[in-house]
Amino acid sequence: MRQVIFTGFSPNLTWRDVKTAGVFLLHPLRWKNLNRGVAVEAAENKLSAYFGFPVVTFDSGRSALYFALRALGVGDGDEVLVQAYTCVVVINAIRFAGARPVYVDIKDDFTMDPDDARRKLTGRARALIIQHTFGQGADLTALLALARAQGLGVVEDAAHSFGARYQGKLAGTWGDIGMLSFGSDKVLSSVRGGALVVVNAKLLDRVRGWQEKLPAMPIAVVLQHLLHLPFFWWGKRWYGYGIGKWFLYAAKKLNLTNKIIYPAEKRGEAVSFFPSRLPNALACLLLPQINDAAAVNEHRRGIAAIYRRQITNPLAIHPPEDESSVYLRYTIRLPAGADPLVRFAKERGILLGDWYTAVIAPADSDQAAAGYAEGSCPAAERLAPQSVNLPTDRLITESAASFISAIVNSYGA
Ligand SMILES: Cc1ncc(COP(=O)(O)O)c(C=O)c1O
């Protein structure tokens, strides 16, 4: 059998998660606790202690973002500045709040370009979303100065940067409110989940009030999220035999597992069963992971350092060196286009995936429904197809990172 290395595919998944899911899945008498239990409050308390501000959980980062914008007073006719090279669900959150996304171009490090933000400002702008793409810190000093000067509310999108400290201060605590994601590709993962770090105390009652009124996640949907764990655990193990791929495909087709982004969301439409509260069962997955965050991020930095040292292919451009980045992915660029390298690596057992290959990811999202006007962010349009995500998660050993580096080096040689 050939060993397969993945960038995506639930990269943080551990046996502990599979066991936690099993405790619920194998005991239908415990299904009454899928939504009800003490884990959500325990996770919120632990996260609040971690950040030093109240933390309120939701079913996902996208739902959390929607409530963050509403808490800042964003509504009909308002504009929200957001970087191009983001996820379609970020745009949906803005649109569902009644506002119009205004796309700001990016710098070579995939974060927002403050000069373009200044150019794109109009009198209708109400809020700014600052995203730390792949864990790389955005230019907080310039962007916050701009927001303060214009009286904009600031949401910090820390979906990719749990535990990162920029200039010594935790990601998620710089703006009025910080958004966290616990989706399956993130630093911490409960398959699905999200939260708000409420820095501006004036927003807390509203955010908490909305959370309390939310419905529970439908039980069938919670079960799908839990089933994700055993399916991916064994699907990844059997992938090299060929059957793992079909196993995961069948699970998806039979609706046994969740979707990270639902087809309706890619068309810019809402999904009926969200927003909802974070289920107890998913909080049980999250809770022990909070203790692991520092070690997980240290590991990611170590793997990133190996890529930086060992990848010497002149066709590849490294991300800027940034000590504060948590390198959710180590994203290199191939100015001639990334697809051939992705295919080359796949033939050698490395699935680098296609996360963030378009201005609005995933690439099959309806870019027009998202209100993106082609040509409005030329750097994002140029950089997106050049980017390749190398994995840094806890399953990537030093020798796997060296193997990946060698494959990248042999490309085009
Ligand atoms: C930058 C960014 N923000 C927000 C989100 C949404 O997070 P969630 O999947 O928890 O809704 C994502 C999802 O990948 C993302 O990439």
UniProtKB/TrEMBL annotation:
Any GO MF annotation of the entry: pyridoxal phosphate binding
SUPFAM superfamilies: PLP-dependent transferases
Keyword Transferase: yes
Keyword Transferase: yes
Modified residues (N6-(pyridoxal phosphate)lysine): 186
Segments traversing the membrane: none
Active site residues per record: 186
GO biological process: polysaccharide biosynthetic process
Keywords per UniProt: Aminotransferase, Pyridoxal phosphate, Transferase
Family named by the database record: Belongs to the DegT/DnrJ/EryC1 family.
Protein name: DegT/DnrJ/EryC1/StrS aminotransferase
Species per Swiss-Prot/TrEMBL record: Candidatus Magasanikbacteria bacterium GW2011_GWA2_56_11
